Amino acid sequence: MRFLTGLSRRHQGRRSAPGNKEPGAGKRRFRRGRPDSLLFRRGAAIISTILAALMLVGNIPATAAGMVTSTIPVGSLPAGVAFTPDGSTAYVTNTGSDTVSVIDVASGTVTSTIPVGPGPNGVAFTPDGSTAYVTNWGSDTVSVIDVALGTVTSAIPLGSNPVRVAFTPDGSTAYVTHTGSDTVSVITVASGTVTSTIPVGSGQVGVAFTPDGSTAYVTHTASDTVSVIDVASGTVTSTITVGSEPVGVAFTPDGSTAYVTNNGFRTVSVIDVASATVTSTITVGSHPLGVAFTPDGSTAYVTNDGSNSVSVISVVSGTVTSTIPAGSNPTGVAFTPDGSTAYVINYGSNTVSVIDVNSAPPVFTADTPPTKATTRVAYSYTFTATGDPAPTFYVSSGALPAGLSLDSSTGVLSGTPTKAGKATFTVTATNGVSPNAVTSRITITVTKGKVR
After folding, report:
1. 10 Å Cβ neighbour count for 451?
2. C-beta atoms surrounding 260 within 10 Å
3. What is the model's pLDDT at position 52?
4. Which residues pair with 414 in a beta bridge?
5. Does residue 123 sit in the same domain as residue 250?
6. What is the pLDDT of residue 136?
7. What is the model's pLDDT at position 188?
């Protein structure tokens, strides 16, 4: 979803009169659009203009590991994304068209579209992959989708303005957050009914369970906090203060750490789950929203709605190691179960960016050719570089000695020099993942060979 659009701290209630959020330092002004949609379908032009100006502010780390390999058109104003447990299919909620796009991951195409309720936002699959829940902000319901049939089989009535949904690891229960009420709805999956509610406070957005299912975190944009819920008792056991306007939340696969995106601060709060305290803060791009970890827990992706980018975080070092350009206003992000691919939802361009997670920039492993050559004598040297995809090579400055050429695919510099003298040049390895690898200035001195 476009998490904070229309969700200012002074206007978190259901279908209230239009209002503005006064911009603070580094914050945007959000205007509520049509009262039946969290994502203001008529306000997109205003937001796009503001975002364009904000993109001129601040520095984003250079792009490196990870690369967008394709783009999938989906419905209007895409919001949430989730993969089936087997990784074969992805669901994308489209708030502007009240539908779910069903993507076949192998082909990277939308194979069908499922009508749901007005303002679909969050989406999640049961652990067995048989069922999907979609929150409908405009009708205060959850659409229950039979994945095999690809149809909505029922709708569960909820509290005001449901936003996000998550299942316990055993699939027995789902939690739904609400922007228009102070409680989390607890759904018993077997009966398909709300069996209890948990008082947590206002301005709820993100929700996630620890891998063992014992604890849930709920983010609150209104109070800059995270509610810690004991699942067994269904009560809030503590509250963690984080950064400004927390939105997304995710746990590492081992459950030791949680990341929370702070939309108002350009940061991610790193929480130690055992102590329920913030242990560090990571600076990312402008207006971070979604967050997800790779299945091995080594890396986190954070979508930056205001920077049109994804920050790639090394979990071990707790630093941003690279930034991947995405589409317009990226919001949600999810990884395939094997961790090879990430889908990033671009709210502003009605697309999904498909990221090859394993792609890496080129790095030279051999770039020091012999500096002496002789006319009429064959010369050969092979430049090599790592990278995924495999890099190609070209002379990026200067000129090769007359008679020599560089094979772009193999990196072989070869030929028979035809003219004595010095030639200075550089070679670049490139594979579409920035930054390119560039050699130091290379000078080859060619001497005149003896005539036989």
Report:
1. 6
2. 27
3. 33
4. 380, 405
5. yes
6. 97
7. 98
Instruction: State the total domains in the chain.
Output: 2
**Residue 220 corresponds to which amino acid?**
H
- Domain that includes residue 395, residue range: 361-447
Q: Can you give the pTM of this predicted structure?
A: 0.78
Q: What is the CATH number of the domain that holds 369?
A: 2.60.40.10
Taking a C-beta distance cutoff of 8 angstroms, is the pair 79, 2 a contact? Answer: yes
Which residues lie below 8 Å from residue 151, measured CB to CB, with a gap of 6+? 114, 145
- Phi first, then psi, for residue 54 (nearest 5°) are -70, -25
Is the pLDDT confidence value at 17 over 80? no
CB 165 within 8 A of CB 157: no
Other beta carbons within 10 Å of 36? 12
Structure tokens at 203: 């301005």
* 55 within some domain: no
Instruction: Identify whether residues 379 and 301 lie together within a single domain.
Output: no
- Backbone φ, ψ for residue 285 (5° rounding): -85, -170
From 358, 385, 416, the end of a domain falls on 358
State both tokens at 59: 């520095």
- ∠ CA(137), CA(83), CA(307), 5° rounding? 70
Share of the chain above pLDDT 70, in %: 85
Give the residues across from 14 on adjacent strands. none
Q: 151-202 pLDDT, tens per residue?
A: 999 999 998 999 999 999 999 999 999 998 999 999 999 999 999 999 998 8
**Which pair of tokens denotes residue 14?**
């259901």
- Mean pLDDT computed over 114-126: 97
Q: Are residues 393 and 425 in the same domain?
A: yes
Question: Could you tell me the CA-to-CA distances from 428 to 149, 383, 401 in Å, in that order?
Answer: 51, 10, 17
CATH (domain of 80): 2.130.10.10
**Mean pLDDT, range 128-143, rounded to an integer:** 97
Q: Report the distance separating Cα 381 and Cα 411, nearest Å.
A: 8
Question: Could you tell me the two tokens for 126?
Answer: 């049961």
